[in-house]
Amino acid sequence: MSVETRQSLPTFRMPAGFNGLLPALVLIVLFFVVPVLALLLRSVTEPEPGLQNYATLLGDGTYARVFFNTFLVASVVTIVTVLVAFPVAWMLAIMPSALASIVFGIIILSMWTNLLTRTYAWMVLLQRTGVINRTLMAIGVIDQPLPLINNLTGVTIGMVYIMLPFMILPLVGTLRAIDPMTLRAAALCGASPFQAFHRILLPLSLPGIAAGGLMVFVMSLGYFVTPALLGGTSNMMLAEMIAQMIQSLLNWGLGSAAAFILLVVTMALYALQLRLVGARRMSGGA
Amino acid sequence: MKLIITGVLARLLATTLLATTLLATTAAKAEDMVFTSWGGTTQEAQTKSWAEPFTAASGIKVMQDGPTDYGKLKAMVDAGSVNWDVVDVEMDFAIKAAKDGLLEPIDFTAVPKADLDPRFTTDHAVGSFYYSFVLAWNKGAVSGNPAGWADMFDTKKFPGKRTFYKWSAPGVIEIALLADGVPADKLYPLDLDRAFKKLDTIKSDIVWWGGGAESQQLIASGEATFGQLWNGRVFALEKDGADVGVSWNQNLTAADVLVVPKGAKNKDAAMKFLAAASSPAGQAKFAEASGYAPINTKAKAEMPADVVKALPDAHVDGQINLDMNYWAEHRDEIATRWYAWQAK
Q: Cα(A274)–Cα(B230) distance, rounded to whole angstroms?
């Protein structure tokens, strides 16, 4: 949604061809802009006019905790995703292209599988009586089942799995653009493999990490299904709280305010991402 | 454009809601109607016991939709585009919704009232079925037999995870108070501080279930060793041959009711449907299929003896009726505290 509204701005100023764009603009205004404004309006008019919904959300310890949880989960997921994605992306970048396209295919295929199905699969794997715990107990590694589900661990595993392609794909692009000669030059100058990674590869791949990381972070902020199924109630995230306010408490004013805050934060991060990607394009073009 | 935005916004919102609800649900033809319930084995039983015989007798087609979503119900009524004609809801919600003007009054000239259990009949709702929360356990995972709610709070005697209903609804608060020694007749008004303090003692051992199928899966797999379940779900587990034990000690009754949302398009058909669903035959058939209790006092005469024996009616000794009126009154207040406590 944010993509469309953003892109519509520059075209709006273009007088030529404006008439042709009118249907698209009407569609965007009617189905994206109006509902968002309605959401904003509801958040300051229900149950009575004023900013009390925002005051409640920002002043109450419970909601503060949910906001904190949301950012905590999104941060943990982003960090773990980067750590897992980097070696995979590096492997893809230096692999023979025939093999790389097979691995790409496998990664893309996982994205095409239904989200709910994948999350339920993790439930089966992670629960106390699940495959992982049973196997570990059978081979004597543990005596008691590990708590892998209904907590932060479960949410992180489930969400990292879902987010990985969104990190790997931009990272591969960045890594492929790095001239391999720079690494050889580093080795020739006496740099250890770690130094070469730390001082050459990592700084050069930073734009890709930043772009992918922000995308993962922003997507994680609004995630609903995976935290709801794999997390515990004490890791409740904003999206689940909004669903509760709308469906179960019927407190639409408060729910709208929470949704609007989430939207503003997401937009701000998205703007940041655009700047970073823009910066990367510039440096890549030079 | 800026000037007119605020003025037309409310109307536009209504239009968008209308448009989306129209897109989301196929509009029913004038003589047809839409029945909405919670899905799963319960709605299957309702379809077979109520909708199919009703269509055969009256020629009115009943389309099934679901699951019940209170937010959606309110959205439909607010937007003036109601696609649901009869909805299965929890009784405390029905009382609250009637007060908020979301429901049509029941036309008791079309729905015979005489034999309906007065506990579950209001001006705006007819009972759907009633059920008990019972204590159920996986026999393979629990050593010994849990005897009552207090055992769910005894982690020494009964280690392992225990499962409770996740949403703010009548049940868990009462269980905590009963386990803490509050006499059944002194439950209301609910002492929330005491209940949450009691729940705190086992919080890290609780696995929440959000729907009936989940509760069955948790107990059957042993993921949770025991828990608070709807008796119909335990009944279904037993029918499937799962090795479960059940204690009816201090079983807690609550009810689902059938309501007609304000502005429903097929009100007449809806009232006829309510008459059929709450009739002795409709109630008997549904109880037989689901293990939930009929809300028509004449229904039991039409049911096999072994089914009657498995109903909450057979366990009235020590049975406690959850106070739906109290819950309707304090729904928001309890819910706010409930979710805040859960998120802690």
A: 51
Please write the tens of the pLDDT for every residue from A249-272.
Answer: 888 999 999 999 999 998 998 888
**Residue A30 at interface with chain B, using a CB cutoff of 8 Å:** yes
Q: With an 8 Å Cβ cutoff, is A66 touching chain B?
A: yes
Contact of A35 with chain B, judged by CB distance below 8 Å, is answered with: yes
Q: Find chain B residues with C-beta within 8 A of A35's C-beta.
A: 13, 16
Min Cα–Cα distance to chain B from A235, Å: 7
Average pLDDT over residues B313-321: 91
Contacts 24+ apart (CB under 8 A), A267-275: A267/A2, A269/A214, A269/A217, A269/A218, A269/A221, A270/A2, A270/A6, A270/A214, A270/A218, A272/A214, A273/A211, A273/A214, A273/A215, A273/A218, A274/A6
Residue range B291-314: mean pLDDT, rounded: 90
Q: Which of residues 121-180 of B touch A (CB under 8 A)?
A: 161, 166-168
Domain with CATH 3.40.190.10 in chain B: 2-130+256-315, 131-255+318-322+329-343
What does the DSSP assignment read for A78-104? Answer: HHHHHHHHHHHHHHHHHS-HHHHHHHH
Chain A: give the shortest CA distance to residue B270, in Å.
24
Mean pLDDT, residues B8-35: 54
User: Looking at residue B50, what is its pLDDT?
Assistant: 97
Chain B positions touching A252 (Cβ under 8 A) are 71, 74
Q: Which positions in chain A touch B5 (Cβ < 8 Å)? A: 37
A258 close contact with B: CB closer than 8 A: no
Instruction: Classify domain B131-255+318-322+329-343 at the CATH topology level.
Output: D-Maltodextrin-Binding Protein; domain 2 (3.40.190)
